[in-house]
Structures are given as structure tokens and as C-alpha cells.
């Protein structure tokens, strides 16, 4: 199927095990959702999985060419780290407005950085031109079988949780495709998340292939004008639904994640959880895909966004201690206990002692 299948995801897991540890699962009680914390992955994003798997697969095939990639930041950082570990030369083409945190992260791992254009698509066209001129291996951030298989290992690590719904952010579709390959056979619903005005995959799956300029968004990691061909084929068969999130919802979710769950996420990293507010599920799990946010952007969000207080959850009857059998107190029914806050029993105020005034 589209050059990649569930067996390829299992093979990727075996390749990556010596290099990448599994990221933790965290239950966000106020959101009623589990979180797969890929913001704690090497280089701060799940993207390193696909990049490392692609380089290891290249080595198995005897391909020793330098690798070039276009990226808004996270794919470039993952590829730079993988290239550093495996001694493979890496060139990263990034948009001129890429976050400085991500540009610095790429340069830190000794990769060559070329800034070009203002969008991912302009950077991708330039990277393809350089690859053709210099016989580099052009590695797509999402539309590559090895990359998709590597991203699918995120799904394999969630399988032990036995979720009924998994929420995944979608830009080009590599992560959603890989996770769907890993989990769909277990009966898990796969729901994608995109931002209003940055919904090229949702439109493509409806048959609308017109290329439009993406809106400016906090989720720069999913700002892709043209989704992948392989990923579109996979998601057309495996994806259950796509939720379109408003920018204000995304900003509020990111701030709540930081303040209530102490989880630092970038815009795309908070996208799946923002979509989760509209998806019902007994055991939901959202992928926090990355945490590489500029400190100045986070500081501005914390100063500007005032999230609404979350609704108080209903107390479940099994969480309530059985009432005491006091003769003077009538036990409350479970329904009234759930709706009325517990208050201490007021004790009668003792009568004051009379003051005696000597004659």
C-alpha cells in the first residue's frame, strides 16, 4: 500500500531501538486525554524518528550520498542529529522566517543550513533543485516510505495504552500515516487535526487539489501548501476524520498545557489536543508532536492569552467514601453527594460564661 505498510513500521522500530528511547505517556486530567510526549524526544520532536530510519535504511542499501531536505525546522533538526550520529553529510534548506530556536538546533549538529524563501514550499523547490544539480539524496519531510515508517513507531509505543481514539496533527501527513499504519488494525480511530486556513490535506481528501497560500499560524510545523502523494493515499484509506481547529483554540490550548500540565509545546505540538475537545472517546490519546517554541513567542502567549477555567468534573459515585451511619445525620444519596459540595457539620456555639462583678 503506497510503498509502505505495517511491516515497515515494525522494521523501523527494530532499527531505531538502539538510538531512540520511547517517549512517555502522560494523563492530562483537566483535558480528559492522554498525551504522547514527543516534545521530550531527541531534538524536541517526533521528526527525528523518520529521519534516523531513512538514514539507517540508506546505509543498509549501500547509498552513501549526502542528504538534503527542506524543513520548517523539526525535520531539519532530526536529520541533522541523525546525520551527526551516523556521519552522513546533511544540508537543510529552511524558510527565511523559520524560528531561530530551530535554525540554531540544526546548526548545532554540524549540518549546513541554507535559508531560502518565506514558506516551506519555496524551500522545498530550492532543495529539489540543489539535489538534482549535485546528486544529493532529497529526503522529504513526510512523503517518503522510510520517513513514514519511522514516524509510525510513535503509534507502536501508544499501543500498550489500548486507546480507542488517537489524535494526530497533520501537515504533509507523514505522522498521521505512520500512526494509522501502526494502530488501525487494532480497531483504533485515527483523527487528524489541522488549522483553519492551513487545511490542504483535508481539502485534498475531499478532492480539492487547488494550491492555496496557507494562512499565518502559530502551528508553523504543519503549514504545508501541498500535502504528500503517498500520505494522501494512505490517509484516504486509513483516516477516520479530520478536525479543523481555530487559531484562538490552538493558542488557548498551548497556554493551558504550559500552565496546567507543565508541558511546553510548540503550536503544532498542541494542535492534536486542541482538536480533542471536539472528539468523544473513552480513552483518547493526543500526540504532542514537538516542543521547539521560541522563548519570545511563548512569553508573549503567556502574557496575552487568558484561558477560561476548565469545567469542574462530575464526581463519580465510586470515588465517594461511604456515608457514616450516625443516628443524628441522614446519609446523602449518591446523586446528591455528587452535586453538593461536602461541608463540615456546624457545632453549636457554647453559651458565654456570665461575668461576675464583685460588689
From TrEMBL:
<feature type="region of interest" description="Disordered">
    <location>
        <begin position="308"/>
        <end position="359"/>
    </location>
</feature>
<dbReference type="GO" id="GO:0004794">
    <property type="term" value="F:threonine deaminase activity"/>
</dbReference>
<dbReference type="GO" id="GO:0006567">
    <property type="term" value="P:L-threonine catabolic process"/>
</dbReference>
<keyword id="KW-0663">Pyridoxal phosphate</keyword>
<dbReference type="GO" id="GO:0006565">
    <property type="term" value="P:L-serine catabolic process"/>
</dbReference>
<feature type="domain" description="Tryptophan synthase beta chain-like PALP">
    <location>
        <begin position="19"/>
        <end position="282"/>
    </location>
</feature>
<protein>
    <submittedName>
        <fullName>Threonine dehydratase</fullName>
        <ecNumber>4.3.1.19</ecNumber>
    </submittedName>
</protein>
<dbReference type="Pfam" id="PF00291">
    <property type="entry name" value="PALP"/>
</dbReference>
<feature type="compositionally biased region" description="Low complexity">
    <location>
        <begin position="331"/>
        <end position="344"/>
    </location>
</feature>
<dbReference type="InterPro" id="IPR036052">
    <property type="entry name" value="TrpB-like_PALP_sf"/>
</dbReference>
<feature type="compositionally biased region" description="Pro residues">
    <location>
        <begin position="347"/>
        <end position="359"/>
    </location>
</feature>
<dbReference type="InterPro" id="IPR001926">
    <property type="entry name" value="TrpB-like_PALP"/>
</dbReference>
<keyword id="KW-0456">Lyase</keyword>
<feature type="compositionally biased region" description="Basic residues">
    <location>
        <begin position="308"/>
        <end position="317"/>
    </location>
</feature>
<comment type="similarity">
    <text>Belongs to the serine/threonine dehydratase family.</text>
</comment>
<dbReference type="GO" id="GO:0003941">
    <property type="term" value="F:L-serine ammonia-lyase activity"/>
</dbReference>
<dbReference type="GO" id="GO:0009097">
    <property type="term" value="P:isoleucine biosynthetic process"/>
</dbReference>
<dbReference type="InterPro" id="IPR050147">
    <property type="entry name" value="Ser/Thr_Dehydratase"/>
</dbReference>
